[in-house]
């Protein structure tokens, strides 16, 4: 199966190298994306440009792919379900949740000179990054790509309720499946509260398991893909 891999803020397709190699060994075809504005030099890219890149990967798949979103890019994976509900086998959400309709995509940190740069490690103290040593933190921060303002502050638009028919697996790194279920049951994740098929997978990592536990994450994704 084609497995489309979408990294979160500040990341390009290279962050999936370890995951991709294991997925290939398990018989899948990984498709790591470098999004417009996050590695291709397009500083004026918009959220619509990123959505178009994801849809192009979905449309290019020979069968029904699984789309994987990490962190903020869980919203992009869910937008793919909204735009192509009949084309997707499944959506996997790693360390994030879908952004509801009408909300900004990722207006989380300060925007300077038209971009949202990596804010440093202070906002990620606690369960997000205990498995990243100093060398890994330095490498990730040094490679971080400032996200264009028109991406971060772009408004998510969802319109096709058939997205709720697309099976979802929530991969839980810095939080547990029990916590994710509580958030959904409490109404804090309205999109997943309405989804008809939601499973959970636990991985003992921080917010970036594709860096710290790529083989384990790949096996989780492969199992999700093969469960269709």
UniProtKB/TrEMBL annotation:
Domain of life: Bacteria
Domain AB hydrolase-1 intervals: 3-219
Keywords from the UniProt entry: Hydrolase
Entry GO MF terms: hydrolase activity
Pfam family, one: Abhydrolase_6
Keyword Nucleus recorded: no
InterPro entries linked: AB_hydrolase_1, AB_hydrolase_fold
The protein, known as: Alpha/beta hydrolase
Organism in which the protein naturally occurs: Streptomyces violaceolatus
